[in-house]
Each structure stands twice: as C-alpha cells, then as structure tokens.
Design a protein that fits this description.
By secondary structure, the chain is mostly helical. It is built from 9 helices and 2 strands. It has a two-stranded antiparallel sheet. Helix 1 (2-27) packs antiparallel against helix 2 and helix 8 (175-194) runs antiparallel to helix 9 (201-217).
C-alpha cells in the first residue's frame, strides 16, 4: 500500500514536469502549446486529490507531504510559467513587463502562504493567484498595453482584498451552474488553443462572458440565489 500511495505523490509531481514543458514552449513563444501543457498539469491537479484520499497517502506515505507538494506544483503552473509568459509576450513595454512579472510572483507567493485563503464554505478569499487564466485572457484578447498593465495591477491588489471568488467544484451553492460553466469553458478553451489563440469571435466572446460570471459569482449574496 505504501508503494501505491507514493505513486500518487509521483503523479502529483508530474505537474512540475509539465510546467517545465510549458516553460520551454513559452520560451519559443508557442503560447497554444504552453497552455496545452499547463492544461495537462491542471487535469492532474484536479484529480490527484481523489487518488490521494483513496489510498490515504497521509497514513501510507507520511514522509512526503501531499499538501506541500501540491503547493509547489501549483505555484509553478498557476504563477511562475504564466508570469514568464506575461513578461515575454509583448503585451506591454519591457520597462513595465518585468516589474509586472515581479509583482505577480511576489503577491502570489504571499497568497500561497496565506492560511486564510479559503472561507468556511470553500470560497477563495482574495484573488486566488490564477495567473494562468489572466495570461490566457491577455494572450487571447491582446488588449492595449495600458489595459494589460492595469489588469495585472488590479488582480495583484485583489490578492489581498476580502473579496470571495467561487471554487467551481467545491462550493456547494450553484454547483450545477458552476460546473456546467467550467465544462463549457474547457471546451471553448480547447477550441481557442486549436485555433492558435485566434479563435472565432463568438468563442472569444463566450470565454469572456464565462470569465465575467466567475469573477462576480462569489459576490452574489446567498439570499439572491438558490442553495
């Protein structure tokens, strides 16, 4: 059982390997491939917890901390590689791009160390350092440099604000709607990657609408929606 439990830790650690592949793609400015590798890492992150609970990694492989391993992998895939992409993708002048990436890395590191990053009902408190999504939309929409700069600044500040963001799977309220929106987003994102991040306009519009929903979903008062 110990070997099986350790194999789950290996499975989680594969995310770091795919982060490296994503970084190599980013260095070549192959953004679609970069997000494809990050997507593989995201799938691993989404299912490894189920495997860990099934084999009880805490009891059967206690030498390795699944929580620490998960944070290490998440930082590389959600923050570090996307930050590099934002810095190097010509989204803003270089004199602004490097400070923007620096701010992303620092604020995200602080967020990952925040013991109160989750509310009692599994909402994220503050922007949950999903810089992979910020990078995705910046590269998808290609806004003007000043909009890109302001976007990074706003989300960096939101990291420390008591604003709730919905976890589409773990938050029970409107889970059916959140998971449906997430599934639709995943399909549309695959289409966008298949089309080299220059998809049909309706795909971009739909992706932006879904993003807008998730940005405000955590702000909806409980009395305004069905539980």
């Amino acid at each position: 059982m110990g070997a099986l439990a350790f194999s789950v830790h290996i499975f989680t650690a594969l995310g770091a390997g795919f982060a490296l592949l994503a970084l190599v793609a980013a260095v070549s400015h192959d953004w679609a491939l970069m997000f494809a590798w990050l997507g593989v890492a995201l799938i691993i992150d989404g299912i490894d917890g189920t495997f860990a609970r099934a084999v009880d990694t805490r009891a059967n492989a206690p030498r390795w901390s699944g929580e620490v391993l998960d944070l290490v992998v998440d930082f590389t895939t959600y923050v570090f590689v996307p930050a590099y992409a934002i810095v190097s993708a010509d989204l803003m002048p270089h004199e602004w791009a490097l400070p923007a990436g620096f701010i992303i890395a620092v604020t995200a590191a602080l967020y990952f160390a925040d013991g109160n990053m989750k509310s009692a009902d599994n909402h994220f408190v503050g922007f949950p350092a999903l810089w992979n999504l910020v990078a995705f939309y910046l590269l998808l929409v290609r806004p003007t440099p000043w909009i890109a700069i302001v976007t990074v600044a706003v989300f960096a500040v939101m990291t420390f604000l008591p604003i709730e963001f919905v976890h589409p799977v773990r938050v029970r309220r409107l889970r059916w709607l959140n998971t449906s929106a997430l599934a639709l987003w995943s399909v549309l994102a695959l289409v966008a990657l298949w089309q080299g991040l220059a998809p049909w306009p309706w795909v971009t519009a739909a992706l932006c609408l879904i993003a807008g929903y998730f940005l405000v979903a955590g702000l909806l008062p409980a009395r305004a929606v069905a539980t």
